[in-house]
Amino acid sequence: MWQAGVFVFVGWIASVCFHEFGHAIAAYMGGDKSVKEKGYLTFNPLKYAHPQTSLVFPVLFMLMGGIGLPGGAVYINHNLLRNRFWQSLVSAAGPLANLVLALILAIPFQQGWIPLQDNGWFLPSLAFLVLLQVSSVILNLLPIPPLDGYGIIEPWLPANIQRQCQKFSNWGFWIVFGLFWFVPAFSQGFWQLVFIITNQLAVEPNLILQGNSLFRQPITRAVVLAGLLGGLWLLKQQNGSNSRVYAVSSRREPGVTGLRKQLASLVDRRTGDRLIASEKQKNPHQSERWYLEKVIYDLRRHR
Q1: Residue 171, CB half-sphere, CA atoms under 13 Å: how many?
Q2: 34 vs 105, more confident
Q3: CB under 8 Å to 59, separation ≥6 — which residues?
Q4: Which of 202, 234, 266 is where one domain is finished?
């Protein structure tokens, strides 16, 4: 049923926003007021979106078998956070947001508001959405960079171990893919834990399986893929608009001159330009200030 695809896709995008908002509000409370300037204190998915991590990877994981992988792109300036405790809390806030959503979505099942025998699409889809939230919490707590589980423990690791782990951050998602595809024990243990938690939330396994079955139907997958393409188109339209704005305003953006001076004190201009160019390839269409803050943070972090 195509309605199931729409419900799950829209519900999942909303949960991605809630996840990223959790990171942003924790960072704001912890001292990084720049998240407000960057527009992260919102539930607008286009503010968080990065084509690969916000849409492509999460949808692929869902189509693989109902694995909840929140995406989004929220850059936190850790230099502004008060201490290591807040750095860990910022990382933990995303999975915590998904846990809260799972608890809220499971309330109708716990309170008996919903009959267990239902031939429609809504109940199975709601149960499947609970499963996505629970799987998201467990997956994101894995201590693999760049997942949140690693972000929680990273501030407490020695600097040399942090540097070594950062080298694998671009491969983290592929490592997770590999674990699910090529390590049966990992996949089995993961899903056993997910269903233990959903059982505790009073969500019937049969309803979850029905929702998963509905989600795997060709018409449902077509709706999800259409949503993916539509989302990518919206991102392209917004990024095209943003790039024109940044081209005009980046030189006048507050703090850019000071950030360039900070960068010059860390590396020579040629190296700085190369690092910024590399960051632009990985995170296109961000502001000039965003790139400068990211490069400066990485340089100081790796020292």
Answers
A1: 8
A2: 105
A3: 224, 225, 227, 228
A4: 234
Residue 20's φ and ψ, nearest 5 degrees, are -70, -35
pLDDT of residue 250: 37
For the chain, how many structural domains are there in total?
Answer: 2
pLDDT tops 80 at residue 1: no
Residue 86: per-residue pLDDT = 95
Is residue 115 one of the residues assigned to a domain? yes
What letter does residue 286 receive in the DSSP assignment? -
pLDDT of residue 57: 66
Q: Based on the residue annotation, tell me whether 20 is a catalytic residue of this protein.
A: yes
What 3-state class would DSSP assign to 208? helix
Domain of residue 269 covers 253-301
Two tokens, residue 140: 């994101």
Q: Which residue among 20, 279, 288, 293 is the active-site one? A: 20
Could you tell me if 201 and 267 lie in one domain?
Answer: no
Name residues whose C-beta falls within 8 Å of residue 119's C-beta, 6 or more positions apart in sequence: none
Domain identity same for 257 and 227: no
Q: How far is CA 51 from CA 179, 276, 281, in A?
A: 23, 19, 12
Q: How far is the C-alpha of 95 from the C-alpha of 136, rounded, in Å?
A: 7
Answer for the pair 98, 70: CB distance below 8 angstroms, yes or no: yes
Examine the fold and report which residue of 182, 206, 234 is the final residue of a domain before the chain moves on.
Answer: 234
Give the 3-state DSSP-derived string for 17-82, with helices as H, strands as E and coil as C. Answer: HHHHHHHHHHHHHHCCCHHHHCCCCCCCHHHHCCHHHHHHHHHHHHHHHCCCCCCCCCCCCHHHCC
